[in-house]
Specification:
Pfam families: TerB. With 146 residues, the chain is mostly helical. Helices cover 76% and strands 0% of the residues.
Length: 146
């Protein structure tokens, strides 16, 4: 289903993603983080839809559809390194900090943080070029606002 998209994503030097592709890649990354502890809770799925709706101005049906596409892409997607690199190349640093904040929202949506989720967030933040300090501050903002 996502063969061409994944092919472009895994090229040695991929071109920057178009907006629709960047949305899909980010949503799939949110799903990957939610699934990292092998407990993809309904609260996490709803949070992904809320993030998509707020970030992209989608109605509930569009947000649900994007989450479903993100789930399908995440199942087929290559390793997190190449997947995340495409997002890094597509968005400015400030927006990448926003991506980390969105990822923390998903991690904290079910009220638990697992070692797997923490490890994946550290990896993703590093791959996105987001500093540990900015990731920590993003987590604190999310925890405070929850």
């Amino acid at each position: 289903m996502f063969g061409d998209f994944l092919k472009r994503l895994t090229q040695p030097d991929p071109a920057p993603l178009a907006d629709a592709d960047a949305r899909l890649a980010l949503t799939a990354l949110l799903v990957r983080v939610a699934r990292s502890d092998n407990d993809y809770a309904a609260a996490e799925a709803r949070r992904i839809e809320d993030i998509a709706a707020a970030r992209y101005g989608l109605d509930p049906t569009q947000a649900r559809d994007l989450r479903s596409e993100g789930e399908a892409l995440e199942r087929e997607a290559p390793d997190t390194v190449r997947f995340t690199r495409a997002i890094k190349d597509a968005v400015a640093y400030e927006e990448r900090v926003g991506v980390i904040e969105a990822l923390w929202q998903v991690v904290l949506a079910d009220g638990k943080r697992s070692d797997e989720e923490n490890a994946l967030l550290r990896l993703v933040a590093s791959l996105l070029g987001v500093t540990d300090t900015d990731s920590h501050m993003a987590r604190q903002r999310v925890a405070r606002d929850s």
